[in-house]
Amino acid sequence: MPTHAAQRPRLTQASAPLTRAIEVRDEFGAARSITIPAERPLTIFVDKRELVTLMTLGAAPELLALGYLRNQRLVDSIDDIESITVDWDVQAAAVKTRRGIADFEARTAKRVVTTGCGQGTVFGNLMSEIDASALPAATDPGARLSQSALYGLLAAMRQQESTYKSAGSVHGCALFRQAGMLTFVEDVGRHNAIDTIAGWMWLHGVEGGDKAFYTTGRLTSEMVMKSAQMGVPIIVSRSGVTQMGYETAKRLGMLLFGRATNRHFICYCGFDRFDAEPEPPRNPV
Amino acid sequence: MPTHAAQRPRLTQASAPLTRAIEVRDEFGAARSITIPAERPLTIFVDKRELVTLMTLGAAPELLALGYLRNQRLVDSIDDIESITVDWDVQAAAVKTRRGIADFEARTAKRVVTTGCGQGTVFGNLMSEIDASALPAATDPGARLSQSALYGLLAAMRQQESTYKSAGSVHGCALFRQAGMLTFVEDVGRHNAIDTIAGWMWLHGVEGGDKAFYTTGRLTSEMVMKSAQMGVPIIVSRSGVTQMGYETAKRLGMLLFGRATNRHFICYCGFDRFDAEPEPPRNPV
Q1: CB 3.0–4.6 Å: which of A167, A265, B205, B282 could bond A37 by disulfide?
Q2: Positive or negative, the Cα torsion across A189, A191, A197, A203?
Q3: What are the backbone dihedrals phi and psi of residue B225, each rounded to the nearest 5 degrees, phi first?
């Protein structure tokens, strides 16, 4: 981490309102005011070349840009990034690298391999690189989760203040070490949320091997792949799983939970990383 | 429509299983079998050039490819398409045009303006074209909705058999004329679902001016823009709205409902297209 600190990129801390109030009508014909989440375009420029425009809530645009570059494998090391300057007046994130990006055109040429939304973007051959991801062994205590730690994680999520609670229509994503929350982010898209966490991890030199992701979104192939890419072996979702999300996680030996709220959950795969402490049956005979 | 029939593209009808059963464990430590939705890559080739890979449920791949080309404005008229051949063995949709696509490289060059997932893809300058979309006047009876027609629409959705009911984790989208359902589709991504309906409308020469969209997904900017692009002035969502979805719809004079289930809803904007028949107050004084 000391070496990271020396090379850490300079980031602005651009802020913008996350919600706005609008006047609506309901089924009773009554006019009332509700709060909805912001959604704004953020165009990422890398060394003055336009890369992509993301629609975002705008809570952490610098970390989003950073994590996007990381998860798209456009930048190999955070040390390569000198600064990220976000200016909402022009809806842009200007990324300055220290030495330029080698093969920039080639890396962004293969246009769109995609996602569970299902039209996200992943440049390059992400899938083929995933198998190279090294996740810790299932015997590694940090890369396991007990049922009580899972409940602790879910309790922390319940207590978390959020734009979702006030305005709905956003996805939340959090990074945990066992039941302890390290960071939490929301965005209009679950891909943006996980990318922002990837940016946070990179910035702070945080490794994924003893961490767990929580997401409100579905566990589609891309969510699972991004988690694997960050080296995080455990994912917990409030929603469900798709076939490719399931198969990818199973193949990589990840621990995957869905439909997780309160003391309910489904464990899809990775049983060998899970220390079950089964609830007593609801109707004991 | 006769002219459409003459030029209608030839489509395969490739099918693939939409769900699979997997073995999971729950909070009681019990092993049980559940059903999850399929998710598979579909790479679209246009005249043998690779365009994009979408992750899809696979329910209607030919219509998805067709609607994708339409909504990305890569093809101007359905008459330009000779055939779409989907082969799941190679996970590909081969689109053959009659005369090639002019400026193919230029049209796909501007890489990714995006979406509410929030990383969908829209080639080109979609936003700037949206204002040119002509929606019927609010006085046009077909482009209005009454509260009872809205309830009828929601009742039709409740009765619809679906992969969602059996497996969860997919988004549904339907096209209505007043309370009458014309077509319904599900996909792992809500963008794919609406694109598939766009393909269906194109194939059958169906105009949007007297139609309404229903979607289970959130009303983000891109969902609203795609609807406007198809000329559909009314959107109903089970979920909520984001700021850009709201502002886009309001600017275009669209009628937008969210949180719509049973006899509950919020009307966000387009009040002048809505014939309210207010429910009696819950607690009359």
Answers
A1: A167
A2: negative
A3: -65, -40
Q: Determine the pLDDT at residue A23.
A: 96
| A267–B242 C-beta distance less than 8 A | no
Cα separation of A201 and A63, whole Å?
9
Q: Is A99 on the interface with B (CB under 8 A)?
A: no
Question: Mean pLDDT over residues B18-23, rounded?
Answer: 95
B284 at A interface, C-beta within 8 A: no
Q: CB–CB of A120 and B117 under 8 A? A: yes
Contacts of A243 in chain B (CB under 8 A): 20, 36-40
Bridge partner residues of A212 (DSSP): A176, A234
Residues B37, B45: Cα–Cα separation, whole Å = 25
**Residue A210 near chain B (CB below 8 Å):** no
Q: CA-to-CA distance for B208 and B104, rounded, in angstroms?
A: 27
Instruction: Output B132 or A67, whichever has higher pLDDT.
Output: A67
pLDDT tens, residue by residue, B222-276: 889 999 999 999 999 999 999 999 999 999 999 999 999 999 999 999 999 999 9
Q: How many angstroms separate the Cα of B31 from the Cα of each of A278, B28, B35, B167?
A: 12, 9, 13, 17
Backbone angles phi, psi at A263, to 5 degrees: -110, 25
Give the tens place of pLDDT for each residue, A14-45. Answer: 989 999 999 999 999 999 999 999 999 899 99
Averaged pLDDT of chain A:
88
Helices (H), chain A: 2-7, 61-71, 104-107, 126-130, 147-159, 163-167, 190-203, 221-229, 243-252
Crossing angle between the packed helical segments A190-203 and A61-71, to the nearest 10 degrees: 90
Measured between alpha carbons, how far is residue B97 from residues A270, B16, B108, B188 in Å?
A: 46, 25, 16, 28
Instruction: Report how far residue A42's alpha carbon sits from residue A211's, in angstroms, rounded to the nearest whole number.
Output: 29
| Structure confidence by residue, pLDDT tens digits, B195-208 | 999 999 999 999 99
C-alpha to C-alpha distance for A192 and B117, rounded to whole angstroms: 8
- Answer whether A259's CB lies under 8 Å from A215's CB: no
Residue A192: other Cβ atoms inside 10 A: 33
Burial class (CB in 10 A: 0-12, 13-18, 19+), B10: exposed
ipTM: 0.84
Nearest CA among B107, B15, B113 for reference residue B69? B107
- CB contacts, 8 Å: A186 with chain B: none
The beta-carbon neighbor of A29 closest among B111, B187, B278 is B278
What is the per-residue burial (b if ≥16 Cβ within 10 Å, else e) of A246-266?
A: bbbbeebbbbbbbbbeeeebb
Taken in order of first residue, the domains within chain B and their CATH numbers are 2-18+36-130 (3.10.20.10), 141-275 (3.40.140.10)
**Within an 8 Å CB–CB cutoff, is residue B240 touching chain A?**
yes
Q: Is B146 helix (H, G, I), strand (E, B) or coil?
A: strand
Within an 8 Å CB–CB cutoff, is residue A118 touching chain B?
yes
Tell me which residues of chain A, numbers 165 to 194, contact chain B at a CB-CB cutoff of 8 Å. Answer: 167-170, 187-192
pTM for the structure as a whole: 0.87
